[in-house]
Amino acid sequence: MRAQIFFLIILLSSAAGCTGGALPALDGLRAVELTLSEDSLAHLYLGGREKDSVSALLRTGEDGVPGRLGLSGQSSLRHPKKSFQFDAAANRELPFPFRSMTLSSQMHDPSFLRTHLGREIYAAAGLATPEIEPVVLVLNGETLGLYLVIERVDARFYERRGYEADRIYRSKLLSSSFAEPMVADPSLGMEAVVGPFHDEELRRLARWANSPPSPEALARLEEAVDLESMLRYFAATTFLWNCDGLDNNLRIFHARGREKLFFSPWDWDRGNMPECHLGALLRKNRLLLRLLDYPALRARFHGAIRTLLNEFTPERIDALLGAELARVRSAYLHDRYRGGAGADPDTERQALIDLHLQWRSELEAFLAKTS
Hints:
- The chain is of the alpha+beta class.
- 42% of the residues lie in helices and 20% in strands.
- Helix 1 runs antiparallel to helix 2 and helix 12 (314-334) runs antiparallel to helix 13 (345-370).
C-alpha cells in the first residue's frame, strides 16, 4: 500500500507540472492526450471509484475536445495503469467516428491480440461490434504507454450501424444467465443503460429459456427477438471461447421500427482463455441451452460455427495476429507496465494460437457429436 501511495504522489506531481506541446509519436500509433486539473486527477486516482467523472480535455492534434473522464473496469481500479472512459461534451465530435470511448489498459490482454481477434470474429458474424484502435496515451504530459481505444455502446453506436435503439440493456456482473429467477425478476440479470427498463420483453426471453420446447413457445419468442442475431451472437461467443460473454458483458437492444430485441458483444478480452470447458460454457446461459433443444435452431447454430471455422482457419488467424503484433510490438516493449527485457509478445501470440487449436478441436468434436 505504501508503495502504491508513493507511486501516485510521484505521478500526480509530475503530471501537474507538464504543459502542452506537440503530441509524441511512438511506433506509428496515434497519440491521445488527456488534460485535467491536479484536483481532478487526484480525485480519480485516489478516489478509485468507477462511476465518478471529472472534466477533462482530449486531443490528438492541435485542437482539444472537452468532456467527462472517469475510471473504467473493476480489474484496473487498483492498478497503477488505469482504464478510463471519456465522453465528449454535447455537440462536440472526437477525432474518432464516435463520441464515447473506453481507453483500456487491457489487464487481461496486454498485447491486445485477443481483443483484435475477437473483434474480427464478431464483426464477421454480422453483429454490431465496437471499433478498436491501439494508441499511446498521455495524461497531463505523462506517457502512460500502450492503450486500446474501444468504441462505447450507446444509442449513437447503433445509429451508426443502421439501428434506432430506443432501449439498451447490459448484463449485471456475472448474472445474465437467464436462469429461472429472471422469469420473476429480469432486473436480477440485466439493467437499462438507455431508455426505460421494459421488464416484460426481457421476461419473454427468460420464460422461453426456462420452458419446455414447443412450436408455440418458439413463435412467441420470434415475436420479440431477432433469432438470427441471437444465434450469431451465441455462435461467435462459443467460437471465440469467450466464457465471459454468456452471463456477463452481454448487450441487448430494442430496435425501433423493427420492434425486436437484438444481441451484440462488448468486452471480449478474455476470449481464448481456458477459463471454462465447452460444457461449462454452454451452461452459462439458459438461452443457449434452450436453443440447442430445438433441432432447427441447433442446426443454424452449428452452421454459424462451421462458417466461422471455415473463415478463420489457423493460417488466417496466424496472419491476423502477426499483422497486429507488428503494429503494436514496439509500443508494447516500450510500455513500462508490460514491456522491458523480459517481455515476449511472440510468446503471447503463440500461446493464443495453441489455445485456439485446442478449442477448435473441441468444437469440431462437439459438432460431430451433436449434429
